[in-house]
Amino acid sequence: MTNTIVIEDVELTYSDGTEAVKGIDLEIPDGEFFGFLGPNGAGKTTTIKILATLLQPTAGMAEVNGFDAKTDPRLIRQSIGYMAQETLVDYQLTARENIRFACEAYNVPHSEREHRIEELLELTDLTDVADKRPDDFSGGMQKRLDAATALVHQPSLVFLDEPTTGLDPKARNRLWDYFRRINSEGTTIFLTTQYLEEADQLCDRIGIILDGEIIATGSPTELKQQVGGDILDLEIEDEDDMRTRAAEVVHKSSVFPDATIESRPDGLSVASRAVQNHSQDLLLELLNADVAITGFAIRTPTLDDVFLAITGEHIEDSQTHDDQVTPEVTQ
Ligand SMILES: Nc1ncnc2c1ncn2[C@@H]1O[C@H](COP(=O)(O)OP(=O)(O)OP(=O)(O)O)[C@@H](O)[C@H]1O
């Protein structure tokens, strides 16, 4: 298997001195669904623009589809699909005309165009509105049309820059189905997202980027294993230092020697390899110490727990500016 993307020690510093990407290395094999996860301002879009040859790295080497980003940007652009963060559909044209225009721009052979247009309309579930202009379309429909225009030339590699930001769950799910389908047909996908669940659901492998540096890579399962065990969520009354006392009991407990403890609005979360087999013992110790537990639950770690374990922050807390985060996909 060959690598569709190879990045070696790539840096990008903007002219105002902002170090957006600080020496990243990455290899993405053919056919992978790769997710680049990170908070606002982490460097996701900058990386995608380097790979799509819209920005030149200030240092390092990027190779895409076997072409060097510095010497062969034109060949790279012809061989990729790029769905930018902002929707790029033309509101003067109908959905069908938008896709036809993209066929012309990407030099899709005349003999294949009509078939390709119908196929893409169907894939993106826009056949019924094919002859309507997109100004009345919902945000999700516009995004699907945008995705169709990015894929008319059937690229083997597609960059999707936060494709579902601001979409409702139904619209998001339809796009997910589409991305899954093209990936199962062999397309390599490089997706940037700030949504943990999106990365978790879709991606074979995830890279977490923070402040221009990749701080972890692995499959969702591998990353979750880094948390070290399962999580015991404890609901504890917020009175008489009860939570502090509970944390002390957990710290001192011989049954949870590896525990890491995180405060939550309604109590504590405890991560430990012992959670699965010894939670009852810990609950007993807490009871003996007069800590009133009003509820508890055992769960497997989420990607937010991974982010927390690595950075000490929740991903949402580390957002650098407000954003229309779709609540139902945040953890
Ligand atoms: N043209 C620019 N000039 C100067 N700084 C920039 C420019 N574009 C982005 N930045 C800065 O570079 C850093 C990385 O931004 P980038 O857009 O790559 O992050 P991101 O992870 O994609 O975030 P978002 O989700 O907000 O798009 C941020 O600090 C951002 O403010």
UniProtKB/TrEMBL annotation:
| Database matches in PROSITE patterns | ABC_TRANSPORTER_2
Q: Which residues form the ABC transporter domain?
A: 5-236
The protein's GO terms of the molecular function aspect are: ATP binding
Which keywords label this protein?
A: ATP-binding, Nucleotide-binding, Transport
Q: Which Gene3D superfamilies does the record associate with it? A: P-loop containing nucleotide triphosphate hydrolases
Record-linked InterPro entries: AAA+_ATPase, ABC_transporter-like_ATP-bd, DrrA, DrrA1/2-like_C, P-loop_NTPase
Q: Which PANTHER family match?
A: LINEARMYCIN RESISTANCE ATP-BINDING PROTEIN LNRL
This chain belongs to the protein called ATP-binding cassette domain-containing protein
Q: Which organism is it from?
A: Halocatena marina
